[in-house]
User: Fold these one by one.
Assistant:
Number 1:
Amino acid sequence: MKAIVDIYLKQGVLDPQGKAVHHALHSLGFNEVTDVRVGKQIVLQLDESDEEKATQRVKEMCETLLANTVIEDYKIEIVK
Amino acid sequence: MNVAIIRFPGTNCEFDTDYAFNLLGCKNSIVWHKKVSLPKNTDLVVIPGGFSYGDYLRSGAIARFSPIMQAVKEFAAKGGYVLGICNGFQILLESHLLPGAMKRNENLHFISKYQHLKVINCNNRFLSKLKKGDILNIPIAHAEGNYYIDDDGLKSLYDNEQVLLQYCDKDGNYENPNGSVNAIAGICNREKNVFGLMPHPERACEKILGSEDGIKMIEGFVN
């Protein structure tokens, strides 16, 4: 089983990378872009067949290490 | 005075820190992060600057789980004094020994330069040798020094005199090199025994280095 974790800065927390990319896109003429958020994706291979258990474990991993919940939100997707 | 300087894989300011505290007559020991206890009679723990674990994932995120950090947490909980400089500050934030979090500098650059700082509160041992409003000139060198805390957290920092240092220009006017909330450069915990700051006082401890302001700051911790 595979878990895909997406981590982004929380809405309302200024994202310096997103802002820089947004600015660069505008400079290149992509003016329809109204906002950019840059995050990271962590892909975990898990030795676990129970989807619910896997989700719970990955949630623990996010809360403990993978995300800093003071400034970041995370989203877990389980792929079989 | 016995100072324990913690070294993680990637720490690179342990010898500068050792040198600076030596100037003040301290007995220092450099402690490998795999140790589970601090040296006996430790009066002060310093987590120096560098790039613990290569700053992978987030600065300080992995160092937080090194065995020695449990001992540091227990030491702090008993009122022991803990100082985190630069990466050390980031580790203290990730360890929840200090509130808030660090983001990448607003301009996304690694900033390395002398920077003026203003003393906002000196009602604590750390800055006891300084006066409120004093301006210091101390180097900064970081890519992730953009301190963030939410509005409630910020209010509580000010209410409890936990904001110790803000970036400023040479005349004390507002200047913000990295985008930190309220240009914050250093804070302490509510109990005032854990301090974290992005600037490097150990790099400003002799005239030949361009400033002695750092030693003035460190003196407060030693006495």
Note: The mean pLDDT of chain B is 96.
Number 2:
Amino acid sequence: MRVALFVPCFIDSFFPEVGVATLELLERLGCEVVYPFDQTCCGQPMGNSGCETDARAAEALFVRNFADYDYVVSPSGSCVHHVRDHLTAVEQDSTTRKVRASTYELVEFLHDILQVRQFPWAEFPHKVGLHNSCGTLRRLGHAKPSELNVPDWSKPLDLLRGVKGIELVMPQRPDECCGFGGTFCVTEEPVSARMGYDKVRDHSGAGAEYIVSADMSCLMHQKGCAERLSLPLKFIHIAQILNGDQGEMA
Amino acid sequence: MSAVLGKKVGKKSVDHVKISREFIADEPHIAFHDKRLWTLRTLRDGQANAIPEWEELRVLASGIKEHTLTHLADYLEEFERNATANGVTVHWAKDAAEHNRIVHEILATRNVDTLVKSKSMLTEECDMRPYLEARGITVVETDLGERIQQLDDEPPTHIVVPAVHKLATDVAEVFADTIGTDRNNADPHYLAEGMRQDTRPYFLKAGAGMTGANFAIAETGTVVTCTNEGNADLSGNVPPLYIASIGIEKIIPKMEHLGVFIRMLSRSALGSPITQYTSHFRGPRDGGESHYILVDNGRSERLAMDDFWYSLKCIRCGACMNTCPVYRRSGGLSYGGVYAGPIGAIINPTFDLKKYSALPFASTLNGSCTNVCPVKINIHEQIYKWRQIVVEQGEVSFVKKEAMKMAGKVLADPKRYRQWTAGTNKALAGLPRSFLYNPFNAWGKQRELPEPPKQTFHQWYAANRQAKEEDEQ
């Protein structure tokens, strides 16, 4: 299966190890992974800020880069949410529509398309709190949002259960937003930081050593909060755990 | 839309960030506010999960509202016909000014000098109280929370629990200053009793009573109000004259539809199965008078807005506020309008885009509001759309606009983007802490910055994979 890898701008810049883990994991699972070299960003920062027209050129570039693949896979739920639901600044021709429909977040790609449940090479002997980002939870349907009266499901948990030694711990408010929110984290700094503090305190109170997520942007924010509060939490992307990263041993 | 968007009331833009910063700095208040409202959200979950058909009810409620709004004129006329047949005098008010004028005229011609009022957000929206008070009429709020806010000269900060941002000790201070209770006694029962004793005489002497309307039923011409304190019953039944202030979007077609909403309203709002009182006002009592005022005040303009008319489905349960992590931490006053929280962020800009241009940005777009909404308003999607309009209309800072223009250009050009990421990482790595954590770096005020890696993913790929691929070829 030929898969194009989309490494969002902030992962490219700050968390290259997440891109590497995603690439290696997809290859382990038998995918032929192509990394279109001219990629930059999906346009979310501009669209989210209300400056959708400024996103047009970046979105057009995204469509050009990923037009020729069956699947586009990215280790970032919020970027995939943008592509799927808000990539509307460019003309909605058949190419754009195809790219939008074939873009998947890594967890849903593993869970729904490859339908893999076991990761025999993976072992993570730590107490882990799962952070479902709001975009993956409520827009991509990763898990049952706590607000809805519907049967329970969780794609990331289905995958993490296939990892040896992992112990999952539950915070009191499992799916409350952590306050990252894209440019919100800068423009609404006081509320954003308070939400982040509350989030990491909640995870810490539940006994988590690590917080895992399919969204590195939320983790970047939470990590910044935890470090400022001197909470001994560690942060890791789900791609890294599934690819066999064992974390720091005590 | 332009008529509404162009409306300027000459008030300063709401600075959500500044007010929320002040609220957050006060630890006891923010901690209580967040916890209290989260408790309501948790209770709401318990109630919603106890009803197997909850999600079907949401679909049904949303459908009834959409149907009614697409046939609004017909149902309003039906309501007027039936209410008139019940002996009620029906008035139509196109805006707040007309609403206030009508109320004043009804009261003044009957020499009423005291009006008792059960909570109505619409009269807040119309700024009715100061209008009447300037004309010599005493207006007494009879809902406990609303009365606390009235006595403290503050607007309600939540549409269901108007004084939720106050601690009991704050209420003790307000009541000590205004109705003479013991400043050092903050026992809620004592305070509630103090307010009760203070308010009772007003019910008895008021020449008129007024309520809002939770629902107005076209088929019967009746108005339905839901309260936990029974104050709507007292306001509506004790004085000889009754006035109901009704937003035109409150209409539902038939009595049989009411049950759908009654099952959802209090469960969504407070996590209780039902309110203590669900009161139906049908017509005047013997020798009395009933007046309904049907108020537009921007609603029909909103109904014409393609992306935003769904906000008229709102039944004012406040569930979106209780669940909103931003509202819980910034408080209702930070929204600067009658409606706070997520629903305020989409309704207030329809009244005045300039004044409320910050509100669509006071959201992380997490979507919890949309999920709890009993009538399925796509709140966070509307917030996203409002952002585009705020920017289009130029209600955004020069710096932000230019920054986004620049970002858009860099992110559209792979070459410039590579230079920029490499440069940023190098700069971050090389700069001293005191330079990075400066007052202009909003990220660094309360958070550590991510450590820049030695190479970007792109550089790693070029070195490890592309080179390898080339070797293999």
Note: Chain B touches chain A through 74 residues (CB under 8 Å).
Number 3:
Amino acid sequence: MQPVWFVLVALMLTVYVVLDGFDLGAGIIHLLVGKTDRERRTVLRSIGPVWDGNEVWLLATGGTLYCMFPVLYAASFSGFYLPLMMVLWLLMLRGMGIELRGHIENPMWHSFWDVVFAASSALLAIFLGAALGNVIRGVPLNAEGYFFEPLWTNFQPGPHPGILDWYTVLAGLVALVALTTHGAAYVAAKTLETVNERARQAGLLSSRILILLTPISLAATLVVRPAMLDNYRAHWWGLVFPLLVVGGLIGLEFFWRTGKDGMVFLSSTTYLVGMLGGAAFGLFPTVLPASTDTTHSLTIYNASTGEYGLSIGLTWWCVGMLLATGYFTYLYRSFQGKVLVEDSQAQG
Amino acid sequence: MDDALAINRWQFTFTITFHYLFPQLTMGLALLIVMLKSLAVWKNDDRFNRAAQFWGKVFGISFFFGVITGIPMEFQFGTNWARFARFAGGVIGQTLAMEGVFAFFLESSFLGLFLFGEKRLGRWGHWLASVLVFLGSWLSGYFIIVTNAWMQHPVGYIVASDGSVHLSSFWALLLNPWAIWQYLHNMNGSVVTASLVMTSVGAYYLLSREQVEYGQMFLKLGVITACIASFLQAMPTGDMQAKLVARHQPAAFAAMEGLFKTEQGAAMVIIGQPDVENQRLDNPIMIPNMLSFLTYQRWGAEVKGLEAFPREEWPDHIPLLYYSYHIMIGLGTIFIGITSIAVFLLWRGWLFQSRWMLWILMLSFPFPFIANTAGWVTAEVGRQPWLVYGLLRTSQGTSPLVSAGNGLFTLLGFMGMYTILAILFLFLMWREIDHGPKALESTHDQSQPEQEGGKA
């Protein structure tokens, strides 16, 4: 039962990154592609009806993780205390940037929330990447299964690292560039004219940086955590994940140049699925490795709840996910097509 | 009290109290919006649609503030209460995850469609969207109440070998009798808040002689709903809830009532100040035998006082518990009185001219928020010193490695952030009410652009 839940939680997290990833990315490039008020409103409207639902995937993933692996939830949430609180504040500020901007017609009010939206989106992308970097690198778990990490120590990934060291900062950068690309692809696909053109330019540039950064980050991962290769050596089919990453990168380079925005988005999605799937595949069955003593590592077996909870959960989870997929399909179909914004302000 | 423990308690108290100001408005409003949409369809009158749109905007803003202040709640079980999260996750993880999967997806998907898809969805489609938003928000409330009810009255669990609890019966958890009454009491309280806010806005429009037509509509719907809900809040929901507390948490019950000595034919205290050191109540005004009768339906029945319980079972803030309970009951009684008079005036056709009553109704809006908050303080302080009643003490629930200094840093951060949120909320709310539904009439025909940005 535990492996099933490992796969399902990893799947939910991937859906979260793919969905909320594009609206975070839209935020990162918000100030770059939108210079006038009308252009910025175009960016906001491209994510307006869906960003909130996308973010719900984070809550649903967190809830499911807590339900099935309470030991992992308790250890990681208390261990990452400060960065998580900062993520919370950033999530709040970002939501305010999106939702409150349109309430008042005043250029100062608009620029203030535009900057808040862009800055919080970029910082969130970095934090999310750094968080994943922490999970791969390992944390100083004690015998009771708890740890506490300060924000930084000496920036070295030793047995007593901080949240930020050179490896996790690198992971944060990769996330920033990857989501910039992903968001640019989404904005390009949803818009016309200048916004579309600027999104393509930004996307092409960030794709190329991503092509440079990805091999560096993978090499760094093998330095920091050589054990990530064990599962790949044992099961050849795991190679599908690196292949997805490579395929996604090739697709990005190719389709940006041919100007097929929809295919670019598909490529960046493929890249994200490959990266996250590859990390999950390499970690399994560990969910939080200990940097101190490997016997303290949390695995799906010592971090999960009882058998009854796991199996009854699967029943309602399937029903709930079927419903949620239905809502999302309907929602996205309702708001499909390019975003059109009038010059005159017609927001109520 | 240990520093870190105190700070963790303060942070949770502060963040949840602030958070709950918003859902208690939106859950009740969701019901009132369904009523307005149904009236619009039934009477084929577009003014009800306009009214629903206006309250939809108020709902949208409040919902947004509820969401962003709600996210920290799901995080804090893990960040600040890791030992509790680990202990209880096998049970309450179920309901918290179900809230995300069943309620949040439903709400977030259909709120956008409700707020911006009126033309696209058509008359019945838009009505259905309002019903689904209502369903989502009330479902969300249910999962949270089930979680809290389990902490008040644990059921459906077994203790595993590592000392944590595992779920043993899914349906026992979901149908916990405590949860059923707590849910009805809580949701009905939310209806009291929303309907009194609607009444208050209606009274404001009439008193300022603006948008009179809508003011009358809001007053009528608000006052009738508030009156029914105020009665239901006392009987049967409040009454049943109190009986459950008396049976399962007798020490909390005694403290709530300010009853230090065990008595036969115990009196009900209306007012008075508890003196915990000397175990007595100063300046009491009471109704003789009433408490025994309300609790056990016999005038002479014995009600256990605090003296019957060992000190370590006493709630740790007795005066706070006593006052919050009495504030809740007192305000609830006042709501019954005011709304009954208002409904009488409405029935006689005098309400819209009774300026004194309109003033009272207009000024009434903060009090249901206070009453509901006091109710939650009663429930949560009453549960102390237990985090999970009878199973886990609050002091055993904190995160072992999060220091008081780190906790204070984030508590101060939340205080700063929420101060800004509060100012923004009041400012935006004031603007919406000032514009009112009338402003929607003029812009309605040009309508919304095809794709709308901000949802709130």
Note: Chain B is about 70% helix and 5% strand.
